[in-house]
Amino acid sequence: MTTRSVRIPDDIDALLIKAAQEEHISVNAAVVQAVEEWARMRGHRARVRAVTAQVMAEDAALLDRLADA
Q1: Which of these, 31, 33, 38, lies nearest to 16 by C-alpha position?
Q2: Could you tell me where the beta strands, DSSP code E, fall in the chain?
Q3: Domain residue ranges in the chain
Q4: What is the number of other CB atoms lying within 10 angstroms of the CB of residue 44?
Q5: DSSP secondary structure letter of residue 66
Q6: Whether 17 contacts 29, CB under 8 Å
Q7: Rounded to two decimals, what is the model's pTM?
């Protein structure tokens, strides 16, 4: 397991502590969950962009016709 030190602004730290308390988890667990969610969402956005680009390329003629309508 890696130990990492991060600087968190005081206002964000207060939100983090409050959220962890409300979830009945440690601040560390809350940070791990937040990073996991961020990484998943980042991957999801990349997949959506790739699929969008694929659709745009495959259906370029149709999209051009729709734009003219």
Answers
A1: 31
A2: none
A3: 31-69
A4: 10
A5: H
A6: no
A7: 0.64
Amino acid at 3: T
* CB 56 within 8 Å of CB 65: no
List pLDDT tens digits, range 2-16.
999 999 999 999 999
Of 15, 40, 45, which Cα lies nearest the Cα of 30? 15
Spatial distance between the Cα atoms of 19 and 27, rounded to a whole number of angstroms = 8
pLDDT tops 80 at residue 32: yes
Structure tokens at 48: 């959506």
Q: Which amino acid is at 37?
A: E
Written as one letter, the residue type at 41 is M
